[in-house]
C-alpha cells in the first residue's frame, strides 16, 4: 500500500488534507494558495490580505526584513517571490497572535469570512501558541529564529518564544 502523503501549510505548518495549491484553504493561518500568496509588489499594501479584525498589519520596517527589495519594487506589477510572500503571511499570522484562525472566523458575524471550503474543518479547542510554534518545525521554521530575524532579540515576541520553546 502506498504511504499516505502528509501535506503542510507552507505558511504556518498546519497539516492539510491536500497540498497547498490544490484550492485548499488553511484553517489555521486562513490563507488560500493562488489567492493570498500570488501578489504583485504593488498590491502588497492594498490587497485585502489583512482583514483588519483578524490580522495585524506589518510596519514597513518589518516588511523589509522579509522582503528586502520591497522599497525598490513597491510600485511594480511583479510577483513577490513565493518564499517571501509565505514568510510575509507567516509574520502577519505571528504578529496577530498565531491563532488557529478558524476559531476566530467562525464567530465573526460576516458571511464573507465563512468560505464553504472550510465548513468541515476540525475545531481546535485546545489551541496554544506552543502548538503554533511547534508546528512551524514541520516546514523547517524555527519560530525563535524567524521572530528574531524580524523583531529582534529585545522584542517581547522573541522573549516569549524562547520561554514557550525551551
Ligand atoms: Zn496555514
Helix fraction, binned, reads: 25-40%
Whole-angstrom Rg: 16 Å
What ranges have pLDDT less than 50 throughout 5 or more consecutive residues? none
Shape: globular
How is the secondary structure organized here?
Blueprint (H helix, E strand, L loop, with lengths): L6 E2 L6 E2 L43 H7 L3 H4 L8 H14 L5 H5 L23 H7 L7 H9 L4 H10 L1
Antiparallel strand pairs: 1-2
Helix pairs in contact: 6-7
Bound molecules: zinc ion.
Can you summarize this structure?
The protein has 166 residues and is mainly alpha-helical. It is 34% helix and 2% strand.
Descriptive account of the structure:
34% of the residues lie in helices and 2% in strands. The protein has 166 residues and is mainly α. The protein has one domain (7-165). A two-stranded antiparallel ribbon has the order 1-2. Zinc ion (ZN) binds at residues 9, 11-12, 14, 26, 28-29, 31.
Amino acid at each position: 500500500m502506498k504511504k499516505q502523503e502528509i501535506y503542510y501549510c507552507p505558511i504556518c505548518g498546519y497539516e492539510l488534507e491536500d497540498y497547498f495549491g490544490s484550492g485548499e484553504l488553511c484553517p489555521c493561518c486562513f490563507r488560500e494558495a493562488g489567492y493570498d500568496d500570488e501578489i504583485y509588489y504593488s498590491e502588497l499594501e492594498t490587497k485585502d490580505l489583512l482583514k483588519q479584525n483578524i490580522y495585524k498589519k506589518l510596519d514597513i520596517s518589518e516588511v523589509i526584513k522579509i522582503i528586502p527589495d520591497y522599497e525598490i519594487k513597491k510600485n511594480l506589477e511583479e510577483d513577490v517571490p513565493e518564499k517571501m510572500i509565505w514568510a510575509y503571511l507567516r509574520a502577519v499570522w505571528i504578529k496577530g497572535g498565531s491563532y488557529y484562525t478558524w476559531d476566530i472566523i467562525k464567530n465573526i458575524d460576516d458571511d464573507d469570512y465563512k468560505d464553504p471550503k472550510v465548513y468541515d474543518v476540525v475545531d481546535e479547542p485546545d489551541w496554544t501558541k506552543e502548538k503554533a510554534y511547534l508546528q512551524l518545525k514541520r516546514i523547517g521554521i524555527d519560530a525563535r529564529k524567524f521572530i528574531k530575524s524580524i523583531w529582534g532579540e529585545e522584542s517581547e515576541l522573541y522573549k516569549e518564544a524562547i520561554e514557550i520553546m525551551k
